[in-house]
Write a structure and sequence with these properties.
Blueprint lengths: L1 E6 L10 H12 L4 E6 L1 H11 L9 E3 L5 E3 L1 H11 L11 H12 L2 H12 L3 H15 L3 H4 L3 H12 L19 H16 L1 H9 L6 H9 L13
Helix pairs in contact: 1-3, 1-9, 4-8, 5-8, 9-10
Pfam families: GST_C_7, GST_N_2
Protein name: GST N-terminal domain-containing protein
């Protein structure tokens, strides 16, 4: 069976990588069954390097039932569409431009909103690594990085203004049926729910932009409720 290598907060913790969630949604779109291999951050590099003969050291990485090993979420999408062209994930939707503008507008606001909750749910070794690496990267403490949460909530609401027009005449960003754009947005916001469900509810179901909450509820029903059944804190 196909295996998906996940990033989890700790042993028995929650999946918090949007890129892994994208890949899982792509597999579900193709009706491909899979099992997961949960890895903490510090376990990923040695495990994936060994699996790929040092060609890759990150997730998402999947090992197909035919033995093929594919890594990087967009490469996984391309591989699946090439192998199983009868049910395309990426259909060349005009909405893609808007979705990537949305991601750019988000910036780091969602990560700022959950990073302290994420750190608190990690084991001691991974928590220390997260703090050291991110504080070095950002040049400030995690507490400083996560300061002013309400401004980050406002930034999220402003970014979703870009998405609302896509839902005025269709239930999904891709139109009448969900596809690549829907999976990208769903995967980007799902870690919020996995790490802080109350925050997710505020950002999505109390979102002032028309259609966002309803779209999320429709996506939640896909694939037997895969997203809403995902483990959360």
């Amino acid at each position: 069976m196909t295996q998906v290598y996940q990033l989890v907060s700790k042993s028995g913790g929650v999946n918090y990588s949007p890129f892994v969630i994208w890949s899982e949604l792509f597999l579900l779109h193709k009706n491909i069954e899979y099992t997961t291999v949960p890895l903490t951050f510090l376990d990923i590099s040695p495990t994936i390097k060994k699996l790929t003969d040092d060609k890759w050291d990150k997730v998402p990485t999947i090992k197909l039932s035919n033995g093929d090993i594919i890594f990087d979420s967009f490469e996984i999408c391309s591989y699946l569409d090439e192998k199983y062209p009868e049910n395309l994930i990426r259909r060349g939707s005009k909405a893609e431009t808007t979705i990537f503008e949305f991601f750019k507008s988000l910036g780091q606001c969602t990560f700022k909103l959950i990073i302290l909750d994420l750190e608190a749910n990690m084991d001691a070794i991974n928590s220390a690594h997260l703090r050291k690496s991110k504080e070095t990267l950002y040049g400030m403490t995690l507490e400083e990085f996560a300061a002013n949460p309400e401004s980050n909530v406002t930034q999220f609401y402003q970014a979703t203004q870009l998405l609302a027009p896509l839902l005025t005449s269709a239930p999904f960003f891709e139109g009448e049926e969900p596809g690549f754009c829907d999976y990208l947005v769903a995967g980007r916001i799902q870690p919020l729910r996995n790490i802080n469900p109350k925050l997710y509810h505020k950002l999505i179901h109390e979102n002032p932009n028309n259609g966002i909450s309803e779209w999320a509820r429709r996506v939640d029903e896909l694939f037997g409720g895969y997203l809403k059944k995902m483990k959360s804190l």
